[in-house]
Amino acid sequence: MLFLAILAVVVAGALIIATHAAVSLEHRVGAAAINRQRAFAASEYGLWSSVANWDAANSALEPGAATRKVVRAGADSAIITTVRLNTELYWLVADAVAGDPERGARRRTAINLHVTTDSAGTHVTPVRRSWSEVH
Known about the structure:
The chain is α+β, with helices and mostly antiparallel strands.
């Protein structure tokens, strides 16, 4: 009888440990998914806010030159790199990290832009099918 009682306590303890490990793993997976989504949202926000608020100083860049700026998106931020490819074509890359630096998620998105200036002002147009997620 004593043997069965000890065996029952050991089995109950093993079940408690296994449940704790499963819950801990599920928590980590959920937190990682949230961090990935936050990083993606910050990256997209930085990319499209840079398109919407185009900096006229980018036209002074030499072809092949680049600038960097930080765009804040709530608690997260993205580093926007603007590369001038030629007189009218630019490449914007948004790199965002969400969560702690060791276990955080990183997302990087990019788009090509066609930028023209005429008497009506500066026109910034995304190149069709140029959006990509860069790893």
